[in-house]
Amino acid sequence: MLRSGCENYMYAHRAFIGLLGGLLPFICFALGGVTAWKSMSDTYWSAALVPFVGVLCAAGFFLLVYGIFAYYDLRDLAVNVTAGVSAVCIALFPTSSSMPEDAVILLGVPPHISNILHYIFAILFFAALFINVMFLFPLGKHRWANYVYRVCGCFMLIGVPLVFVSIWLTETFLLVPFSVAWIIKGRKLFYGFGARR
């Protein structure tokens, strides 16, 4: 009974992480308007501030908890803790590209330093998501699930060159496949379909 309850919690945890990631680009676009087309990060200084920071911090927290619960697998621990910490730091250190002149940043960090930290953590965050989906998820025993994970990983790669068109498009191509993979990981569509290794 206890084992079954823990497994159900982990499935729900994975699905919730996926849901948060998949909704973020569209929430930012809906509330940030034209600003979002440039980058989700630019919506920090718009009406999308609260959901942007809230979703990132929530996703970061859940990734951290997931990574800590996966302490028995150092790969899961390293990748998910990196993703979780990075997600929270993205929210704490906004980009300065659309920053109002009177803006105040956490701990009084100068705007140019906040900008550098923001992009460093953004790169770490997306790299960790990609490693999870493309290399860790497919280590499971379920062939169809592994195939879907790799397809999601390929879509994430396709999004990278789109940075020359719109950073928002790149972010969306990275987050939506990540979301699909995590939601599948969090559901038993067939017996054990979403299970870990």
Walk me through the structure:
There is one protein chain. This protein is mainly α and 197 residues long. The protein has one domain. The protein has helices at residues 2-32, 34-38, 49-69, 74-92, 111-136, 143-159, 167-185. The protein is globular, with a radius of gyration of 17 Å. The two termini are 21 Å apart. Residues 189-197 have low confidence and may be disordered.
Q: TL;DR?
A:
It contains 7 helices and no strands. With 197 residues, it is mostly helical.
Number of domains: 1
Uncertain runs? 189-197
Order of helices and strands: HHHHHHH
- Share of residues in helices: over 70%
Q: Which percent range describes the beta-strand content?
A: under 5%
Number of helices: 7
First CA to last CA: what distance?
A: 21 Å
The geometry reads as globular
Determine the mean pLDDT: 82
Estimated radius of gyration:
17 Å
Largest β-sheet summary: none
Question: What is the number of strand segments?
Answer: 0
Q: What structural class is derived from the secondary structure elements?
A: mainly alpha
Write the layout of secondary structure elements.
Blueprint: H1 2-32, H2 34-38, H3 49-69, H4 74-92, H5 111-136, H6 143-159, H7 167-185
Task: Kindly list the characteristics that best describe this protein.
197 residues, mainly alpha, 7 helices, 0% strand, disordered C terminus
